[in-house]
Amino acid sequence: MAAFRQESVDEHYEMGEELGSGQFAIVRKCRERSTGNEYAGKFIKKRRLSSSRRGVSREEIEREVNILREIQHPNIITLHDIFENKTDVILILELVSGGELFDFLAEKESLTEEEATQFLKQILDGVHYLHSKSIAHFDLKPENIMLLDKNVPSPRIKLIDFGIAHQITAGNEFKNIFGTPEFVAPEIVNYEPLGLEADMWSIGVITYILLSGASPFLGETKQETLTNISAVNYDFDEEYFVHTSELAKDFIRRLLVKDPKKRMTIEDSLQHPWIKVIKRRNVRKEDSDKKPERRRLKTTRLKEYTIKSHSSMPPNNTYVNFERFSKVLEEIAVAEEGLRELERNKLSCQEDIAALLSIYEEKESWYKEENESIEGDLGQIRLELQRTETQRRQSQEEVRAALLSTNALKRRFGRLENRFEVLAEQVASEMKWVEELVLSIEQEKRQGTSIR
């Protein structure tokens, strides 16, 4: 998280006149108390609640600050200091007091392509530096192309306002809908992955306006403007480009290409003959023996364009309306993605149903085979049970017969036992009689012996 000075900015800087304002920012001229140096103080209104639409989020402010801290180039505005209070983050920036490039050029009666390319070369140098660090500005437009000081022989270009600039990371897809409609690339309008190429499209639009004073895609409404951009619907009207060289038109054509991969890179642009050749001679081949004559471009229409941009900017040029439109496009994109997801889910469900049906049919066939096998086994078991039941009944009958026989034997045994008892009693009685008889005989014998 970026650390900002929590001290009061007024203790270090004396605030002066307002230099400009945006949707959530005000820029004021300021003087550093310790040195007397002049700077520009950009007061960015902080978003208090994450759900609020008012103000700029902490994440967006930190992204802008981190990018400004990283860059140091003669054609790019410089960050000097940062303060923070309860409501604002204040960026102390290099004071760029020369005004907008287009305003400066519109003050001239006419403009040569050589003069135009000298300024354009500075823009390209600044963008080349940004792109070398994989930083995309995403809001290149005349209002953000300023002069450090217009009262010098060769004014220096300064690129400003990095509020929506992003560091582009390889392998990390980035999509967003932002910027100023008149200057955004088709991939922004169509909510496609974004990269450094979007800046090159904006440079193509800026060059077109610089040379003609007309905007290539601007329509009566924002929808018409965005439709023109998406369709790359533009031409080089003879009325506006009668004094423009073919090299200049070729430069624009190579930038206003819908496919970002086929669009000129910043390196390609710097090597383009229209930019690379310092001393340019706009002479046709058949007139090569004649004294070269510079083509001068009238700035009347450019003046009209700048006046119109500053005084009564059309509704489709406002960021607020574009932001609303961008939200609609985002919702459409989400809805389309949802529909695609539903279609994928439908196909997936159909595949799952087909797979389940195949499994069901396979299982059904297996169950049928198993059922037939089980039915055969059950029939075998039934036969075995029937045999067992028959054998059980036979066994029961045999047991019953055995019981009957046993009972008969028991009764017979009982009768024999009774007879045995009677006979035993008779034998005992007979034995007793015999014993008594023997005893009687022995007594008689003893008596007979004693008499003798």
Polypeptide structure, described:
Among the domains are: 1-95, Phosphorylase Kinase, domain 1; 98-317, Transferase(Phosphotransferase) domain 1 (Transferase(Phosphotransferase), domain 1). The chain has helices at residues 9-12, 58-70, 101-106, 113-132, 186-189, 197-212, 222-231, 238-241, 246-255, 266-271, 273-276, 300-311, 319-451, and strands spanning 13-21, 25-32, 38-45, 79-84, 88-94, 110-112, 135-136, 145-147, 157-159, 166-167, 296-298. 54% of the residues lie in helices and 12% in strands. The longest helix is centred in the C-terminal third of the chain and has 133 residues, at 319-451. It contains 13 helices and eleven strands.
DSSP, total strands: 11
Number of helical segments with 4 or more residues: 13
Can you tell me the CATH superfamily of one domain?
Answer: Transferase(Phosphotransferase) domain 1
Side by side, the strands of the main sheet go 1-2-3-5-4
Q: Percent helix among the residues?
A: 40-55%
CATH class of one domain: Mainly Alpha
What is the gyration radius calculated from CA atoms? 55 Å
Q: Tell me, what's the shape? A: rod-shaped
Order of helices and strands: HEEEHEEHEHEEEEHHHHHHHEHH
Largest sheet: 5 strands, antiparallel
Could you list the spans in which at least 5 consecutive residues all have pLDDT below 50? 278-293, 312-323
User: Judging by the overall fold, what is the CATH architecture of one domain?
Assistant: Orthogonal Bundle
Structural class by secondary-structure content? alpha+beta
Q: Assess the beta-strand content as a share of residues.
A: 5-15%
Distance between the termini: 161 Å
Summarize model confidence as the mean pLDDT: 86
CATH topology of one domain: Transferase(Phosphotransferase), domain 1
EC number: 2.7.11.1
GO molecular function: ATP binding; protein serine/threonine kinase activity
Protein name: non-specific serine/threonine protein kinase
Catalytic activity: L-seryl-[protein] + ATP = O-phospho-L-seryl-[protein] + ADP + H(+); L-threonyl-[protein] + ATP = O-phospho-L-threonyl-[protein] + ADP + H(+)
